[in-house]
Design goal:
Radius of gyration: 29 Å
Number of strands: 8
Mean pLDDT: 89
Distance between the termini: 70 Å
Number of domains: 3
Largest sheet: 6 strands, mixed
Structural class: alpha/beta
CATH topology of the largest domain: D-Maltodextrin-Binding Protein, domain 2
Length: 290
């Protein structure tokens, strides 16, 4: 007859031991020594009055009673983890941090799609060019080459760029080929030589505007006001083209090597965070420019 309930920690040791089929691997997962696992299992067998493992020298195998108890313990632990995750999710909004242009020109426009989902939770959006400390966000969206070694990275979409300019600046002279674009003032961007090269335009020299801007949004504003030609994302500024505020004179788009990435803390398993990442991926796939 069972005189006392076994400790939950002992049941965790049992579940890990049965799952791994080995005290050593179970010990590694639990952060203890194999001897500590063996002692726990022996104490548990004594408490239950039931043999949980067959031992033959260094080899061991769970008994039917051990397998069945471990299965039920695993189910109970899953319920406990789900309850904890639900509690954490209910404690506050999903903290999302994103770089300015991505936030303003892509994410904010699509958040109503997310809020329409049955399992959506409120989003608290932080707009920042610098990556916040990992304890200050649940989901981060940043641009780079994927070199965030302490975070889990998921590629969302490549950085894309193509020339855009105001209708007034475009009307000053014909734009029959990419070479003609070199006669216009160009807003500074490191990828101009690459765009001309990929577009098949051999240009001797490029004339850049004296003023430079740190944000793509400022480049877009300057282009709309006729200051010069900007290299901008055709996804982010598609609405400006549709509204006639900007023109995309040529079809060629440069892509990469940088990408927009979703960053999560290592080992992240909260359902709401993973659902939001998956939703971002679905939206990105639906908004790609061919």
């Amino acid at each position: 007859m069972l005189t006392r309930s076994p400790a939950l920690e002992s049941l965790r040791f049992l579940e890990a031991s049965v799952r791994h089929g080995n005290f050593t691997r179970a010990a590694a997962e639990l952060g203890v020594t194999p001897a500590a696992v063996s002692l726990r299992i022996r104490d548990l067998e004594a408490d239950l009055g039931t043999k949980l493992f067959h031992r033959s020298g260094p080899r061991l195998a769970p008994t039917n009673a051990g397998v069945e108890l471990a299965r039920r313990v695993a189910e109970a632990l899953r319920l406990v983890r789900a309850a904890v995750d639900h509690c954490v999710e209910a404690a506050g909004p999903l903290r999302v941090t994103a770089v300015p242009t991505f936030a303003m020109r892509w994410l904010v426009q699509r958040l109503p799609h997310y809020r329409a989902l049955a399992d959506a939770i409120p989003v608290e959006l932080d707009v920042s060019s610098e990556l916040r400390p990992s304890q200050d966000f649940d989901v981060a969206i940043r641009t780079g080459t994927g070199d965030w070694p302490e975070l889990e990275t998921t590629a969302l979409m490549p950085v894309e760029a193509t020339p855009m300019l105001s209708p007034a600046l475009a009307a000053e002279a014909p734009l029959a080929s990419p070479t003609d674009l070199a006669s216009r003032p160009l807003l500074p961007h490191d990828d101009w030589p690459r765009w001309f090269h990929e577009a098949g335009a051999a240009v001797a020299g490029l004339g850049f505007c004296a003023d430079d801007f740190s944000l793509h949004e400022l480049h877009a504003s300057a282009a709309m006001n006729g200051v010069g030609v900007a290299l901008l994302s055709p996804i982010f500024y598609a609405s400006h083209i549709e509204e006639g505020k900007l023109l995309q004179p040529f079809a060629h788009i440069i892509r990469g090597p940088k990408w927009h990435y979703v960053l999560l803390k290592a080992g992240e398993r909260r359902p709401a965070v993973l659902r939001f990442r998956d939703w971002l991926l679905e939206e990105a796939q639906g908004s790609s420019v061919s």
